Amino acid sequence: MDFPITRIKGGVGAAKGFTTSAIACGIKNPAVERLDLALIRSEHPCVSAGTFTTNRVKAAPVKMTQAHVRRGNLQAIVANSGNANACTGIQGITDARAMADGVARPLGLKRTEVGVCSTGVIGLPMPMMRIDPKFGELVDGLGRGRGGEVARAIMTSDTRPKELAISFDLGDTRVRLGGCVKGAGMICPSMATMLCFITTDVALSKDDLNRAVLEAVEESFNRITIDGDTSTNDTVLVLANGASGIRRLRRNGPRCRQFRKALKWLMLELAKAVVRDGERVTKFVHVKVRGARTYLDAKKVAEAVCKSALVKASWNGGDPNWGRVLHAVGYSRAAIREELIDILYDGVPACAGGLQAETPMDRLRDIAAKPEFEIEVHLNQGSAEYDMYSSDFSPEYIDFNRSEYAYWKQARKDGLV
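-> structure tokens emitted (417 positions)
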């Protein structure tokens, strides 16, 4: 970051004029007491923007919230974990509307001013009989300093809440930017499988916020992968309420550019946190592609390496198998020349000109054994580059994802299937 920022507490509730709340409804399992329903509310009218899953199978809340953001601006977000409300037909849309109405009425908002997000098991109807009675408590609980509860309430297979907030100066005014994210499995670019909510007390036009969000998502959540799967529920929502008192930023002015940089930085830090908390992962690997002929070639190479099951398995074993990296480069469909390719682990040559480098294998093994390291792929054909962040595949990941049968048993008890 080329200007000073300060990390502050509060997560998604850190910006001025925002309050948050979270409660337990027993959405996945009524016998387990855990936060699973969250609310973010702005006390002032907002400008909002969002990006959503590219999966053609979209969850009911995604379809509805997309329409709300397209038509106008959100002033609140209600989100749940434990059930994705995906592949649930007309009933799913009805339930998503009921969630929006459930908070809109007591807040004095229109349904279209509420975004709805869900995450959890796909294919099961929402247990609305446990959610409907809780909206009053959820709204009554709104307050400052509860952003961390939102981060916990949207967790599914995450092992820890992921949140971040910063403050920085735009001219003479101190502004705030905060957010939280959930995601650990079904993570793949365009978009990664996660929910992310970001709030700011800066004032922007809708066009400027849309542009800032699209740019930031492309350089953050579209640069991570854990298992190569893209879900039905991916959503990033950003609310800007102008409560800092700063006047609307001038398009492409220095303060607007500064805000975009801060938003990109925040999103990238949250995206990295998703990879580090991936389902049963043991390695965080930064893959840097350099010297490609075109941006698209660099992207193809990075995605091929980061998604390769063989490469990811070698990372899990601490094996600096540069041959697997090179083979992934070869099938990436990028324009390459094998004899020009160099591959480095934390700056140490493993492959030079498409052949084994002179570096002792023990030195490379020491690097690959670390929990975090970099792999640089130099194509030596141009100046285009691309960065991605990935993880290993572990035997525990397979075991963890073998069955969701227990969730269906609970749904049967609830009379939903």
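The mean pLDDT is 92.
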